[in-house]
Write a structure and sequence with these properties.
The structure is a homodimer.
Chain A lengths: L2 E4 L7 H10 L4 E4 L1 H5 L5 H10 L3 E8 L7 H21 L3 E5 L10 H17 L3 E5 L10 H11 L4 E6 H6 L15 E5 L10 H7 L11 H10 L6 E3 L11 H23 L19 E10 L2 H13 L3 E6 L4 E6 L2 E6 L5 H9 L2 E9 L2 H10 L3 E3 L12 E3 L5 E6 L6 H6 E3 L13 E9 L4 H10 L4 E10 L2 E9 L6 E7 L5 H9 L3 E8 L3 H11 L8 H10 L4 H10 L2 E5 L2 E7 L8 E9 L9 H10 L1
Parallel strand pairs in A: 1-2, 1-8, 2-3, 3-4, 4-5, 5-6, 6-7, 7-8, 9-12, 13-16, 18-21, 22-25
Antiparallel strand pairs in A: 9-13, 10-11, 10-17, 11-12, 14-15, 15-16, 18-22, 19-20, 20-21, 23-24, 24-25
Helix pairs in contact in A: 1-10, 3-4, 4-5, 5-6, 9-10, 10-15, 18-19
EC number (chains A, B): 4.2.1.118
Cofactor (chains A, B): a divalent metal cation
Catalytic activity (chains A, B): 3-dehydroshikimate = 3,4-dihydroxybenzoate + H2O
Chain lengths: ~625, ~625
């Protein structure tokens, strides 16, 4: 498909926007009027700049409150349209968007609207331009695509067609099924926007909180499917009004935008297969989402000094050193199925990360049936492949760069639990250590993100890794709100938690200022008996965040917890959450360098969340120290 | 009155909140449940800490979804209430808040609600505690205070009363007039909240966007008046859920909170005078709002080098040096009625500001009929008085500290246009300079504020200076949104513009990072012929931000501007705005050190705004350079 994006969707000057959009592989743009009005150059110059970058200018949107107006206003708007047609011809933009009238002056008469749009289309036709009519969700008399289509039909002019925007239809919960019956060649343009489900005025929602397909809660695939079933073959475009995107570096936004279209195309392609639709357009067809089965390792970036600190810490956590790397200053620690790698190799990727962010997680190793396919999927979805230097006889584990710069390695399942480590490390002793505390697996990894990274990560984990986001929660830190959202695969063997501090003053935000964001904030490790594990860890010297007695007094009034269990939790400082599916018992360690800490968790039954509602108890406790 | 505040209204740990609240002069707190649950100490210890700080714990709010429930849930909630009564007795809190039920399980039967609340009150009575019932705006069956009052009447228990919260009534546009008919002693507690008018779900509005009285758009004075007419004599409290306050330093929030109550009391006191109400409570009675009549001077903090740079700049702007200070390294420049002071005195307040913020405005001089009364008003409203060292025969101009640390001097009207300067300066030459460009007065001063300073400034300018806020606008900078709000006195002789960057990446935000916020961002000077003035300024060497030709092409299609005027504006780079009352022509200079710049403005007719919609043209132009 011809992929396009509205310039309002990105930050920067118009020229910077065009460069970012071209680099991300777009074919065209929709020109937002303010971008042109404030551009230091003529329409013809803009057309040349876009052309040089390989971009067409697909749409211009200068008209407001046009159709169904009293004669005087209509004549004035026609005159305005003529001046804008001048510009469109000079810049080479073929189509003008006219959105439905919101003015209190407008007259509720579809025939008048049709007649006035007919005249506009006739003027456009004289210059071989086209006009598309779009129903705004907050239009005064026309707010559904069905109403707009009736007016377009009545106007009956070959240079007038319909423009569809998924936001306007899905925000009103209107059924997109009727779109399939509209002749595809009368749909002149398609704008796709997703959005989180918010209970607010639709105009404010539309102007501030749209997002790229795959970042929100709308059934954008279902909408796009109907448009393709109609036989539409025009541009696939994004018009996203989002306060955060207005300030996000535009190169990242442009990549996210392209990824969202590729994801939308590939998901819709699968949907169209049943029942099969004759393909009138070519939809993106990437390798399938990889089957991932949990985290095999977590790698820390360190120098020699911090590697020694980490060694002490992880031993307190019940890990034992089981090997050193064949060719690098890298150490492997293990407990249960958990591998922690401490990388203090100079001149390495890890050292670069250490120098930029201090002691921090620099890579995750994900078990995967077909690592090459996983990398293929990722690069098709516009993630970057990363190849580390490899010594003799060592394994090359395919890796990609996650948003923010950390690596995700795909560890072949075929290697079994130990194959990778046998190949790359000189293993010293693989038995359980005397200090083993019963930690078994990596339950989840929580990332601390800057506000503008959340949508990027939701789309990355969905499109590249095939994870699905859960509920979005807001949690109170003593110094501001934290937004928290889990993402996981269907089997729940791979879980990440995306935490965003809305405040600059929380501990989460201060972690970000060290790491630059997109960094691991805490690591949750699972066990089968949290009381036994916590006791062993305490005996090893691990210190946990203390929890107020008041928490347990209140817990007893909220949830029917057996008194004996409550008493054990109170004594051990263990937090508790219950869902209809099961229970979650957990405890947080004190944080070390850079704010990173560990969580020990025990899932009982099919509990499927992260105890997020207990996070305020942790944050308040940390603040009181 | 007994002044109180809910702990949820401030950032920090519970102990930090109590200290900030006590220091700001509050008498008591409402304890938010999460603050207690996460507090490392017992209820009795909390009571002692509060007592030591001179604070009572006036209210505790642990119940949700209590009344009108099936028997099993009701019994369980009663048990929970008993445990919370234990805590209240231990901490010394006399009143429990029970807000109306939002649960889908609740039964729409006011008699059942009354009976269950009666039993709760009976349990409370056994311990000599009280229960207050409050209608939540989103309550399932009870959402108006009138409904809640009917239930309280029916329950008919001396330990059960009504709790009122202005947010719930005013957000639903319910009429508060009926409150006056409720017996004052059956109103157990009063929570006052203001809010901006937002088109969103009332629950989201309530949880994220409340503000202190005087910061929002509600008629909080009218609401409070009705409560006093009812004969209420209990606490006057603030329960403010606000995402920004959660991260604002709590000392500032506490001062804002106290100022808002003092303002509310003093405004309501005036309202109660007609028709007179027997005073059952003592309302705060500060000196009246000062009569201010415009800015007499703007003072810059500089060192010797930057004073020289400023000298060049202001001479290009048509100012001439007319004097030097009798005892300090301070220079006076003048044009029309505008005095610019450059303060390079070592060991001065200005030098402190210079060292912290670079070359920047450090003080404003406001003409005032009664400066001592103005300072009296300001200190009564919890602003700090500032006394500068004064040399022999120099005038002591009373001053206060504005939020963010700059000074506002009150210059006595009685001194005439020149009295202050004759006293403090050795005047050299007061004639118009050869470079005079026709600048006449200070039209307005625009401040760049951090997001958490906007509400502080709206309340400060309202309560201390008697200015009223205008419309709140959102403007698109290429790197994020700017929120802009003018505040002015009734005569429009004193105007400030409060600009907040919602993004960290705009030029406005970068100015903030230099100045720490609350700093002057640009200075608008008025003239009577902008074309003549601009031509002279250009001839003097002043450089203006260039405006795109596309702006003028578009202007002609939006507004009927006479072609000759349009052509002059295009040639001179002058921007244009038109309201029904008049026109605004303006032009921006390029910025100098620290991002500060000047605006030259001509008001035609009764135009009453600031040309804010043209700011994006400036911001886009600056970004393209």
């Amino acid at each position: 498909m011809h992929r396009s994006i509205a310039t309002v969707s990105l930050s920067g000057t118009l020229r910077q926007k065009l460069e970012a959009v071209a680099d991300a592989g777009f074919d065209g743009i929709e020109l937002f009027e303010a971008d042109f009005i404030n551009f230091k150059g003529t329409a013809a110059e803009l057309g040349r700049i876009a052309g040089d970058l390989g971009l067409s200018i697909d749409l211009y949107q200068p008209l407001r409150d046009f159709e169904g107006m009293p004669e005087a206003q209509f004549r004035r708007s026609l005159e305005r349209a003529e001046r804008k047609f001048d510009l469109m011809q000079a810049m080479g933009a073929p189509t003008m968007l006219c959105c439905s009238n919101t003015s209190p002056l407008s007259i509720n008469d579809p025939s008048l609207a049709a007649a006035q749009l007919h005249e506009l289309a006739e003027r456009a036709a004289r210059r071989n331009l086209r006009v598309g009519f779009e129903a705004l969700a907050w239009g005064r008399h026309t707010w559904l695509y069905g109403q707009a289509w009736e007016i377009v039909k009545q106007a009956n002019h070959p240079h007038l067609g319909l423009i569809l925007d998924s936001f306007h239809t899905l925000s009103l919960k209107d059924d997109p099924a009727g779109i399939a019956a509209i002749p595809g060649d009368k749909i002149f343009f398609l704008q796709m926007a997703d959005a989180p489900l918010l209970s607010m005025d639709v105009l404010q929602w539309a102007r501030h909180h749209r997002s790229f397909p795959g970042q929100g809660d709308f059934d954008v695939v279902g909408f796009f499917e109907q448009v393709l079933r109609a036989g539409y073959t025009g541009p696939l475009s994004l018009e996203i009004f989002n306060d955060i995107f207005r300030e996000t570096p535009n190169r990242r936004t442009a990549v996210d935008a392209m990824r969202s279209l590729l994801y939308l195309e590939s998901e819709t392609r699968q949907r169209l297969a049943k029942p099969a639709v004759a393909q009138q357009v070519t939809l993106f067809d990437p390798p399938p989402v990889p089957a991932l089965s949990g985290l095999s390792f977590i790698e820390f970036a360190a120098d020699e000094a911090s590697a020694a600190t980490l060694a002490t810490l992880v031993k307190q956590l019940g890990f034992r050193r089981i090997g050193r790397h064949r060719s690098k200053a890298v150490t492997l620690y293990r407990q249960g199925e958990i591998n922690l790698i401490v990388n203090a190799q100079p001149d390495s990727f890890a050292r670069e990360r250490f120098e930029a962010h201090g002691t921090s997680v620099c890579a995750l190793g994900v078990r995967c049936g077909d690592p090459l396919a996983a990398v293929g999927r990722a690069t098709a979805m516009r993630s970057q492949r990363h190849d580390s230097p490899v010594g003799p006889n060592e394994l090359r584990v395919p890796a990609i760069v996650a948003p923010g710069g950390n690596l995700i390695h795909f560890v072949p399942e075929a290697l079994g639990a130990n194959g990778l480590y046998e190949a790359d490390f000189i293993l010293e002793d693989q038995g359980a250590g005397a200090n083993d505390a019963g930690l078994q697996r990596i339950d989840h990894v929580a990332l601390g993100l800057a506000l503008d990274q959340l949508d990027t990560w939701v789309l990355f984990t969905r499109a590249v890794l095939g994870l699905e986001p859960g509920e979005s929660l807001e949690l109170a830190d003593p110094f501001g709100l934290i937004r928290s959202r889990g993402v996981a695969n269907a089997e729940r063997s791979l879980r990440l938690v995306l935490n965003v501090s809305l405040s600059q003053r929380t501990r989460t935000a201060r972690t970000l200022s060290v790491t630059g964001g997109g960094a691991v904030h805490h690591i949750a490790l699972s066990c089968s008996d949290i009381f036994e594990t916590a006791a062993k860890l305490r005996a090893n010297g691990t210190r946990f965040v203390p929890i107020s007695d008041n928490y347990y007094d209140d817990l007893a009034t909220r949830i029917d917890v057996e008194p004996a269990l409550l008493s054990r939790m109170r004594d051990a400082g263990v937090l508790f959450d219950r869902s209809p599916a099961g229970d979650y018992l957990h405890i947080y360690t004190e944080s070390f360098e850079g704010g990173l800490f560990f969580e020990v968790a025990q899932r009982v039954g099919d509990y499927d969340a992260y105890g997020a509602l207990n996070a305020p108890a942790r944050m308040a406790s940390q603040a009181q120290d």
